[in-house]
């Protein structure tokens, strides 16, 4: 028997993808001034599928889920810091929202199983 | 959740940007140094950034580091100052190739990048705190 309900498994996978994405975006901001660096990102749905299907604890990394944008600068660096920071805020908003849902659903399980 | 990963990435960037700012400060300080330990006028120094894998594996976080510090070989201006001990036979002194305006613009960019990485740390920290709140 699965202890976690299906939606909780999806939420866990989503949290994994969102934290991996946060790391990628942090790397993009860090390399905003690195010549030749190309910004990286995850395709959320593809990465979620990957985590759900592999059931592994590792971060989603397959290269086909990494998008590489096209507008290269004169130093062959395409990082737009504003855009990356906006993506990063958006990502942490989703992370916190998923976390809230996950916590609530866990609390429901706990109150359903507690004795009094 | 790799809050540690995000912190490591942002930390590497903060370190690299401070090294860049140190070099800019050094360039600005030596804007009038017509002599240097190696001889000749001071040459401005530039930090070259390079993406750096933090940890092993394909999914490892990508930080940044100062790969090397290069000297700008562009010639500086020559001014006429015969009383200067470093003047040549014609009384010309080679000035450093530091342009204060250029350095200040570079400094602004470095400090903006530094701030951007600070805000990444802040947002990762907020998420991590919310994660800890699950235990309440």
Would you write up a description of this structure?
The complex is a heterodimer of chains A (116) and B (136). Chain A has 116 residues and is mainly alpha-helical. Helices cover 59% and strands 3% of the residues of chain A. In chain A, helix 1 runs antiparallel to helix 3. The radius of gyration of chain A is 18 Å and the shape is elongated. The mean pLDDT of chain A is 82. Helix content of chain B is 45%, strand content 20%. Chain B has one domain (3-134). The two termini of chain B are 18 Å apart. Chain B contains two helices and four strands; from the N terminus they run H-E-E-E-E-H. The radius of gyration of chain B is 21 Å and the shape is elongated. The mean pLDDT of chain B is 91. At the A-B interface, helix 1 and helix 3 of A face helix 1, strand 1, strand 2 and helix 2 of B.
Whole-number count of domains of chain B: 1
Physical arrangement of strands within the biggest beta sheet of chain A: 1-2
Low-confidence residue ranges of chain B: none
- Approximately what portion of the residues of chain B adopt beta-strand conformation? 15-25%
- Rg of chain A over CA atoms, rounded to whole Å, is 18 Å
Query: Helix share of residues of chain A?
Result: 55-70%
**Mean of residue pLDDT of chain A?**
82
Order of helices and strands of chain B: HEEEEH
Number of helices of chain A: 3
């Amino acid at each position: 028997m699965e202890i976690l309900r299906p939606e909780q498994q999806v939420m866990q996978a989503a949290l994994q993808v969102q934290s991996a994405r946060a790391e990628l975006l942090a790397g993009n901001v860090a390399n905003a001034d690195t010549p030749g660096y190309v910004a990286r990102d995850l395709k959320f749905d593809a990465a979620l599928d990957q985590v759900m299907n592999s059931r592994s604890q590792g971060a989603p990394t397959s290269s086909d889920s990494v998008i590489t944008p096209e507008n290269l600068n004169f130093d062959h660096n395409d990082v737009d810091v504003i855009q990356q920071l906006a993506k990063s805020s958006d990502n942490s908003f989703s992370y916190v929202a998923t976390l809230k849902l996950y916590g609530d659903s866990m609390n429901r399980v706990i109150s359903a199983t507690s004795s009094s | 959740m790799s809050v540690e990963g995000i912190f490591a990435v942002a930390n590497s960037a903060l370190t690299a940007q401070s090294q860049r700012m140190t070099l800019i400060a050094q360039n600005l300080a030596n804007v009038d140094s017509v002599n240097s330990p190696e001889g000749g006028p001071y040459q401005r120094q530039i930090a070259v950034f390079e993406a750096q894998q933090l940890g092993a594996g394909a999914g490892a976080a990508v930080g940044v580091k100062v790969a090397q510090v290069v000297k700008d070989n562009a010639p500086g201006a020559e001014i006429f100052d015969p009383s200067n001990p470093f003047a040549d036979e014609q009384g010309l002194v080679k000035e450093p190739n530091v342009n204060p305006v250029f350095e200040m613009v570079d400094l602004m960019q470095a400090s903006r990048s530094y701030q951007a990485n600070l805000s990444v740390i802040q947002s990762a920290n907020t998420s991590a705190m919310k994660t800890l709140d699950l235990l309440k």
